[in-house]
From TrEMBL:
Pathway: Mycotoxin biosynthesis. It comes from Mytilinidion resinicola. It holds the Pfam family ECH_1. SUPFAM superfamilies: ClpP/crotonase (SSF52096). Gene3D superfamilies: 2-enoyl-CoA Hydratase, Chain A, domain 1. This is Carnitinyl-CoA dehydratase. Keywords: Virulence. GO terms for biological process: fatty acid beta-oxidation.
Amino acid sequence: MTTPRTKNPVPAWLENPYPRVEHSLISFPAKHILQVTINREQYMNCLPVEATIELGALWKWYDAEPELRCAVFTGAGKKAFCAGMDLKQRLDLIKTNDVAHDYPHGGFAGMSNRTGKKPIVVACNGHAHGGGFEAILNADVIFASPNATFALPEVLRGVSALAGALPRAMLLFGNHRTMDLILTGRRMSVEEAVSWGLVKEIVPQEQLLERAIAYAVEIAEKSPDSVIISRLAAREAWETGVSRATMRGQEIYSEAMLRSRNAAEGLAAYREKRDPKWLPSYL
């Protein structure tokens, strides 16, 4: 039994086939381990809405599959883990006034606001910007290549990181470091990410995935019930505050932001490779 876009056949020890995916590669590098690779290298692994919906369903399947114990999440190529949402698609939605499909409850990549049951280890193989950084902020353990950078550049595009990153960054980094990142949109180097406690290890690109898989195997060797319960218990304080803050941010600000003239201008400037010409704010 195989599924489209797999690297290898689905192993016999799985009870149920995984949901169909078109934008990622699915593989099983070791017993109990799921590997998910965003397969949009030519687009810096940015995700259209459809890809996020796919991943939301995939992570739910992963949590429900009894023999899976740990997942490794990475991107194709050596330049980017994920450059965020497909901003060109977002601009088209604004221009046509079409309604985008709702993101899954887990948020961007099905992960930025995910609670879930089981751990996700990230092998960050390059840039993690925008939604890519939002997903990483909610990962369980992160390994990164030397060329990895992290950024929330939404203020440069006329939008905002409302998929979970803002309250999570505040809890992880504190007020002043968070404001430095989100008000300038600057890039954080991988060395700075280590010093801030975000990245566990910097690993050479050619060894990155192997290191992340070996770490996932180490987790999978432990009691799966203990891993699930320990993870959820540790995240309890995080979830009760962050999820509500994310929901309120979306309820209060999201529609106004996306319908603003500055959002359209920022996204158009990105597509046209020019500096944006900002308009007065009437929010």
